[in-house]
């Protein structure tokens, strides 16, 4: 193709109508096939084994594409926050930027430095991505569904694995995510990468603790580890656990930033200090896998947080609307609600990223060990005492405990000399001799 | 040792030297142009003037004399008190500097001396910073005064160092100050260019950019150069030199002060004799003959190859036996092997190679290589000598051979034996800047079956060598040379060898079966354990900038 | 520096809310949110580059913009450089390579036989321009500098002189304070004598 043709194609794609047309050409036939082939796969939809797998395939497809959109969204949000436009050259409003990025990643030279540990070097990005995706298995995307052609009273679940230990599985798998980063840092044979890997481990270990403590608060109230149960409880009572345990939610959100290595806790890849951290030596598609893993991790993390605190698929708080509705349209609605919540959650994470500067490593550690862990312990102890006296049955009792703990922390903060964030106060005036 | 007081500080100094010299040796930066410790004193520049305490004519008590005295012309006396750190002295320096700059062109950006120029540095340190001169400056075209030297007369400060050098040190007297006053200039006599064998020193002596080396002209700015301590391989005297290099290229060679050999001077041979280092036809990869033709070899395969080939040539003499010493039936083994150690090698390299050969073949013959001699020793009036022997380390190699004992031979004898086909294998080290393989040498060595040639340039041995190893020049190696008087002087590496070439020391180190990096110092320590001659090296005192 | 010149700054005391850090974070998030939705500011600040350039808007300060280098020519069309190496000495990126030679003109000593600037290594700090005693090397307002190979981006003397030809109308050569360095001692322009007087 000559430069002129390329320019012409580019120009055409910047026209929104052309873009919609291209989109339609690509999607309408696929949709048609899906509709026409409906009788063929109708049986699968009502099968309790195959249906969750189909859901998973759909979700995986959706999420892998969503990461691409996430990258565009991130860059757009970054641009807007900094009074810029963000990407706006490829396609209308820069909408085709993810396509261009993907093409670029595929076509770039895939460099494997000579002195790396090759098997581990190749394994690391795959591991990072796989681990961040397997968490989806226990997410109750849209509860139960009853297809019209099924026997009355029977339903199929949209959840792939209905595990008794649902939340434990998420935690176990989620912390494995750091393994990919450590391997990448180790295999790269590069000091900066290794630093990145080390930082990731230390950070992960530190932030697992408050995360676990905050989870315990919720689990003491729910009495179950099954995510679908937890969501059901919230949907039926209409009381989302964020109203019961606001402090625990806060802890979880903070820890989520750390677990996903997002700013302000993105120390493992701190560009200014570590070149690129654990992915310094990675290029082309292997680098893209890390990118993908980060965003997939964000999506899993926020999906879990939403299931625990924000009512999962429940569309509105303080009402049990749709809670028992298993109609197929309700299922689609619940699914949409869940994805919307995830999108909003991720939007907030990006918003935070472009607001708060990166922590210093000692500040990061101090925040975990001197603020979050004590707060989590205190909170868990309070909730445990409350549960002992049956307080978990009254929702405002939990809220009251949270408020009390918050007031206690405020009182402590007001009188303590040490700030919680590690900023040094009352530095002695620096003395200079006569120079 | 007399004691004098300079600027209130008591200083002990050698007797009979001028106060200026005492001050310089005490580390004071006293400006001066005409004074040079190696030349006679003329006290013409008036820049080193000092204040001195003298007895008052009436009271006989010691007071600061109202007049300034040239410190270069005043010998030290015990108990005298002088000062440079006074208003009068500084005022004098300032005005003398202004005077020197009356006619001096401000062309420092294109002057080769800039950066090491006394005038530039003194103007910065002591000068007035501005000139009150309103007339046009005198212009004087540059003069070609000799095959190697240019004279930029308008930069000259008429310190007459160059004139005195030619009179006193070289004894040839080509230069003279002609005319008087502001028209005075340095010149040569018609038909007698400046071409004595020491003339390059006038360029170093010149405190300004008046006398410049045609060879170095416009090549580099001096602040870009890196100076490395080295010893000249030009003759067996062991003149110490600075190698000034930049970006792996030598740009010039300057004398390095050495109280025991060459003092402040070097011969032109030492100064200009480095050009061969950058000759494009240098050997640059090892080659091994296979089925009659040479093939490029890897450096890593050479040590094993040489070791096994030499071992084959000495039937029955395995390495272990060699280490145990010659047993009765190995007495004759290895007689067919010879190693020719060039006097261009450093002591460390010669020792490592000799040890390697004796290790493989205990009865091998060690030969001192070709010693080039040109004419006779040339001695100059003040004692500076250019040696006739044009190699740096004959004595060092001899010392090593004498210590190792066994079969040794000189080069002529070796050639004679080679013609009689007494040798199956030989390791020949060259490293000479000039052609040394004469037809008779080549013919004699053609009788050797397995010939290893370690040399800088292609020669007549090319067609005869079984293994050809490219050598490195002295500037690309480190080690020590022992001069003709037995003085052991170390030299450092100035530049890296050309691509494909390994420094000789590193190669023979690996050949001797050692791993790691060759450090001349460590090898020398080993040698010193066996040979006391190598226990101590002589490193001349380093003088500060503008110390002479 | 005297003691009384030193101003000792005391860090401000943190309020309890500030110590908790979170309220400040929310404060910051409100700020970024405000920026996110201020279309007007965005339009003012951002310039859509290929269509809208600083040059087009007349905002480029031609006199001091530091773009690609040029080697100036003097009034007679000869290269003004005297090969003094000051620029390459001052260059923090070591991107200037000069080979000096004896000049073919009577009014100066040296001239650059080779003069190369590696435009890829250059950091466009302008130190070479500052260092030049004859104002021979200058940075031009030309900033759209691209090439397909690394070799192409090493500008030699001819190319640098060509840049001068192309930019001399937009940015004329400054009047050099010193015109000749050479055997004349910096004042005479009327030297017609041969370069070297052969004595031997």
Description:
The complex is a heterotrimer of chains A (435), B (548) and C (200). Chain A folds into 2 domains: 1-36, no CATH class; 48-415, no CATH class. Chain A has helices at residues 3-13, 16-36, 38-45, 50-81, 97-107, 118-134, 166-187, 191-222, 227-237, 241-244, 246-259, 271-274, 284-309, 328-353, 361-388, 395-415, and strands at residues 144-145, 156-157. Chain A has a two-stranded antiparallel ribbon. Chain A is globular, with a radius of gyration of 24 Å. Chain A is an all-alpha fold. Chain B is α+β, with helices and mostly antiparallel strands and 548 residues long. Chain B has 3 domains: 3-97, Ubiquitin-like (UB roll), CATH 3.10.20; 107-117 and 136-278, Alpha-Beta Plaits, CATH 3.30.70.20; 302-323 and 333-375 and 392-534, Rossmann fold. Chain B is built from 14 helices and 26 strands. Chain B has helices at 19-25, 87-100, 118-126, 161-169, 201-205, 268-272, 301-313, 319-324, 347-360, 394-404, 411-419, 439-445, 504-511, 520-530; strands spanning 3-6, 9-12, 49-55, 62-64, 69-70, 81-83, 142-144, 149-152, 175-178, 185-188, 211-213, 226-231, 240-246, 249-255, 287-290, 293-296, 337-341, 365-368, 378-379, 385-386, 408-410, 425-429, 450-455, 467-470, 479-482, 488-491. Chain B has an 8-stranded mixed beta sheet with strand order 16-15-24-23-22-17-18-21. In chain B, strands 1, 2, 3, 4, 5 and 6 form a 6-stranded mixed beta sheet that branches. In chain B, helix 7 (301-313) crosses helix 13, helix 9 packs parallel to helix 10 and helix 11 crosses helix 12 (439-445). The model of chain B is unreliable at 317-333 (pLDDT under 50). With 200 residues, chain C is α+β, with helices and mostly antiparallel strands. Chain C has a domain at 69-167: Alpha-Beta Plaits, CATH 3.30.70. Helix content of chain C is 26%, strand content 14%. Chain C is built from 7 helices and 6 strands. Chain C has helices spanning 16-20, 22-36, 39-45, 54-57, 86-90, 127-131, 157-167, and strands at 69-71, 96-102, 110-118, 137-139, 154-155, 196-198. In chain C, strand 2 (96-102) and strand 3 form a beta hairpin. The chains are: A mainly alpha (435), B alpha+beta (548), C alpha+beta (200). At the B-C interface, strand 7 of B face strand 2 and strand 6 of C.
């Amino acid at each position: 193709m000559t430069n002129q043709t390329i320019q012409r194609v580019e120009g055409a794609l910047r026209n929104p109508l052309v873009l919609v047309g291209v989109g339609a050409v690509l999607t309408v036939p696929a949709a048609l096939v899906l509709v026409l082939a409906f009788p063929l796969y109708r049986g699968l939809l009502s099968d309790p084994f195959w249906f969750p797998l189909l859901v998973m395939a759909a979700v995986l497809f959706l999420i892998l594409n969503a990461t691409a959109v996430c990258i565009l969204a991130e860059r757009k949000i970054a641009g807007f926050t900094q009074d810029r436009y963000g990407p706006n050259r490829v396609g209308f409003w820069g909408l085709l930027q993810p396509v261009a990025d993907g093409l670029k990643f595929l076509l770039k030279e895939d460099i494997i430095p000579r002195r790396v540990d090759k098997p581990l070097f190749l394994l690391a990005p795959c591991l990072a991505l796989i681990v961040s995706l397997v968490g989806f298995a226990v997410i109750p995307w849209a509860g139960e569904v009853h297809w019209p052609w099924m026997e009355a009273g029977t339903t199929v679940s949209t959840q792939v694995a209905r595990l008794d230990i649902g939340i434990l599985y998420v935690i176990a798998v989620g912390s494995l995510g750091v393994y990919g980063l450590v391997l990448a840092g180790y295999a790269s044979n590069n000091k900066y990468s290794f630093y990145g890997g080390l930082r990731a481990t230390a950070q992960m270990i530190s932030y697992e603790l408050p995360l676990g403590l905050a989870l315990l608060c919720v689990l003491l109230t729910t009495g179950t580890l099954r995510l679908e149960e937890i969501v059901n409880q919230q949907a039926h009572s209409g009381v989302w656990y964020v109203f019961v345990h606001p402090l625990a939610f806060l802890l979880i959100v903070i820890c989520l930033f750390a677990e996903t290595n997002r700013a302000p806790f993105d120390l493992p890849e701190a560009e200014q200090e570590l070149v690129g951290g654990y992915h310094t030596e990675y290029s082309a598609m292997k680098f893209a896998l890390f990118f993908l893993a980060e965003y997939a991790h964000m999506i899993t993390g926020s999906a879990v947080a939403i299931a625990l605190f924000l009512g999962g698929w429940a569309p509105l708080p303080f009402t049990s609307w749709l809670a028992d509705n298993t109609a197929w349209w309700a299922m689609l609605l619940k699914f949409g609600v869940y994805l919307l919540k995830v999108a909003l959650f991720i939007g907030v994470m990006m918003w935070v990223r472009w607001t708060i500067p990166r922590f210093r490593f000692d500040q990061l550690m101090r925040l975990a060990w001197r603020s979050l862990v004590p707060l989590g312990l205190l909170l868990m102890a309070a909730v445990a005492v409350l549960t002992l006296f049956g307080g978990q049955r009254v929702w405002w009792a939990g809220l009251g405990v949270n408020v009390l703990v918050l007031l206690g922390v405020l009182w402590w903060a007001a009188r303590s000399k040490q700030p919680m964030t590690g900023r040094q106060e009352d530095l002695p005036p620096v003395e200079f001799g006569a120079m | 040792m007399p004691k004098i007081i300079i600027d209130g500080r008591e200083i002990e100094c050698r007797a009979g030297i001028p106060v200026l010299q005492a001050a310089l040796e005490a580390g004071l930066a006293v400006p001066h142009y005409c004074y040079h410790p190696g030349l006679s004193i003329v006290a013409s520049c008036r820049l080193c003037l000092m204040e001195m305490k003298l007895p008052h004519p009436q009271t006989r008590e010691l007071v600061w004399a109202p007049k300034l005295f040239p410190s270069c012309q005043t010998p030290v006396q015990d108990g005298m008190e002088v000062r440079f750190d006074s208003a009068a002295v500084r005022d004098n320096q300032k005005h003398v500097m202004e005077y020197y700059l009356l006619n001096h062109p401000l062309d420092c950006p294109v002057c080769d001396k800039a950066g090491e120029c006394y005038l530039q540095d003194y103007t910065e340190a002591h000068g007035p910073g501005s000139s009150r001169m309103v007339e046009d400056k005198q212009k004087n075209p540059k003069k070609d005064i000799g095959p190697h030297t240019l004279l930029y007369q308008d930069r000259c400060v008429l310190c007459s160092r160059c004139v005195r050098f030619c009179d006193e040190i070289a004894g040839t007297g080509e230069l003279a100050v002609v005319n008087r006053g502001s028209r005075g200039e340095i010149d040569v006599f018609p038909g007698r260019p400046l071409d004595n064998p020491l003339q390059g020193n006038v360029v170093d002596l010149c405190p300004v950019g008046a006398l410049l080396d045609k060879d170095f002209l416009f090549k580099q700015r001096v602040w870009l150069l890196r100076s490395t301590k080295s010893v000249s391989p030009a003759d067996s005297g062991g003149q110490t030199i600075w190698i000034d290099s930049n970006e792996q290229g030598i740009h010039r060679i300057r004398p390095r002060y050495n109280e025991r050999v060459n003092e402040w001077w070097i011969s032109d041979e030492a100064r200009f004799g480095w050009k061969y280092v950058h000759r494009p036809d240098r050997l640059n990869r090892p080659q091994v003959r296979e089925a009659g033709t040479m093939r490029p070899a890897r450096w890593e395969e050479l040590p094993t190859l040489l070791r096994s080939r030499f071992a084959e040539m000495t039937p029955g003499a395995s390495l272990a036996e060699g280490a145990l010493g010659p047993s009765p039936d190995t007495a004759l083994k290895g007689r067919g092997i010879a190693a020719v150690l060039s006097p261009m090698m450093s002591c460390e390299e010669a020792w490592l190679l000799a040890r390697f050969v004796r290790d493989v073949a205990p009865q091998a013959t060690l030969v001192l290589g070709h010693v080039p001699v040109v004419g006779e020793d040339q001695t100059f009036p003040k004692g500076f000598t250019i040696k006739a022997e044009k190699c740096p380390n004959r004595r060092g190699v001899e010392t090593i051979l004498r210590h190792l004992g066994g079969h040794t031979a000189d080069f002529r004898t070796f050639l004679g034996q080679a013609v009689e086909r007494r040798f199956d294998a030989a390791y020949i080290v060259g490293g000479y800047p000039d052609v040394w393989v004469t037809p008779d040498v080549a013919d004699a060595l053609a009788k050797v079956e397995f010939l290893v040639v370690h040399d800088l340039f292609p020669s007549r041995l090319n067609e005869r060598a079984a293994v050809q190893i490219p050598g490195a020049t002295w500037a690309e190696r480190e080690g020590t040379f022992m001069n003709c008087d037995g003085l052991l002087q170390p030299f450092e590496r100035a530049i890296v060898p050309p691509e494909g070439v390994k420094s000789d020391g590193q190669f023979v180190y690996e050949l001797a079966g050692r791993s790691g990096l060759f450090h001349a110092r460590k090898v020398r320590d080993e040698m010193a354990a066996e040979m006391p001659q190598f226990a101590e090296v002589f490193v001349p005192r380093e003088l500060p900038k503008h110390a002479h | 520096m005297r003691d009384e010149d030193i101003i000792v700054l005391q860090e401000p005391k943190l309020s309890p809310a500030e110590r908790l850090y979170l309220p400040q974070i929310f404060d910051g998030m409100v700020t970024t949110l405000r920026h996110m939705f201020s279309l007007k500011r965005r339009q003012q600040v951002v310039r859509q580059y290929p269509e809208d350039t600083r040059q087009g808007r007349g905002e480029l300060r031609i006199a001091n913009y530091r773009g690609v280098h040029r080697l100036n020519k003097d009034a007679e069309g000869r290269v003004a450089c005297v090969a003094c190496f000051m620029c390459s000495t001052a260059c923090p990126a070591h991107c200037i390579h000069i080979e000096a030679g004896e000049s073919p003109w009577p009014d100066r000593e040296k001239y650059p036989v080779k003069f190369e600037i590696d435009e890829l290594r250059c950091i466009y700090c302008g130190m070479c321009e500052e260092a030049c005693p004859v104002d021979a090397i200058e940075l031009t307002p030309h900033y759209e500098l691209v090439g397909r190979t690394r070799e192409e981006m090493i500008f030699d003397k001819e190319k640098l002189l060509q840049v001068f030809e192309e930019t001399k109308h937009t940015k004329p050569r400054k009047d050099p304070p010193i015109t000749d360095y050479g055997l004349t001692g910096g004042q005479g322009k009327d030297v017609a004598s041969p370069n070297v007087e052969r004595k031997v």
